[in-house]
């Protein structure tokens, strides 16, 4: 009888151990998916960068950026460059505009209609243009289009090579269905 009880207790302890181990495994796997890995930002301020490093190989993070070298009317997200330059942007709360810190008088604009998938450009700033107006929520770290607050500035799911750096598409996306790691932005001011 003692031998049967001993085996029963041993089985119960083993079952409990397996349950605890399973719960710990689930917890650690889930937490690694939820928690963002912050970049090791080297870009001088002002800069607006993605809170999650995603897959940026050198851990530089992704910043708002003009495409190509120097000024361009087209935008994307690009590895945050240690020397700054065309990845330096500032958010003006009073006008709700995202302005280039490098190219004087230039602001981010939604190209075309305000819809999921719309791209961004860099044009002359105009305070009355709703396509240049973005609300920033410090709690959610989201930039929402003032013309349609269900849409956020986000990066694409896939990255691509950009010389020695990396880049991603920059688009408007439906906030509710976009994972936080693709739409949470940090504003680093002077």
Word description of this protein:
- The chain has 190 residues and is of the alpha+beta class.
- The protein has 2 domains: 1-35; 47-188, Trefoil (Trefoil (Acidic Fibroblast Growth Factor, subunit A)).
- The chain has one helix at residues 2-34, and strands spanning 47-50, 62-66, 75-79, 89-92, 97-100, 106-110, 120-124, 134-137, 142-145, 148-155, 160-162, 165-168, 170-174, 185-188.
- The strands form 5 sheets. Strands 2-3-12-11 form a 4-stranded antiparallel sheet, with no helix packed on it.
- The longest helix has 33 residues, at 2-34.
Task: Summarize the entry for a quick read.
The chain has 190 residues and is of the alpha+beta class.
Strand and helix map with partners:
Elements: H1 2-34, E1 47-50, E2 62-66, E3 75-79, E4 89-92, E5 97-100, E6 106-110, E7 120-124, E8 134-137, E9 142-145, E10 148-155, E11 160-162, E12 165-168, E13 170-174, E14 185-188
Antiparallel strand pairs: 1-14, 2-3, 3-12, 4-5, 6-7, 8-9, 9-10, 10-13, 11-12
